[in-house]
Design goal:
mainly alpha, 0% strand, flat, Rossmann fold, 3 helices
Length: 72
């Protein structure tokens, strides 16, 4: 619901300080676009997997479309 999103927009942001307090070796996933939920300072964190997630999701969607349309 858009109204609910507006209420919490910007309240929950993953940033470098939050990651440093978290358990070692965490993985951060996000479907993207990140809007304001993940700070850009997190992009170079080794556990930031959201760009790989988005990249791999592209190929999953392509495969599903090929399967659905009978091209496979």
């Amino acid at each position: 619901i858009p109204e609910d999103y507006e209420k919490v927009k910007g309240v929950y942001v993953i940033n470098r300080a939050m990651i440093e307090k978290a358990k070692k070796g965490i993985t951060i996933l996000h479907p993207l676009p990140r809007v304001d939920e993940i700070s850009t300072e997190v992009d170079d964190y080794e556990g930031a997997a959201y760009f790989r997630q988005a990249h791999n999701g592209l190929y999953v969607r392509m495969a599903l479309l090929a399967l659905i349309t009978g091209r496979v």
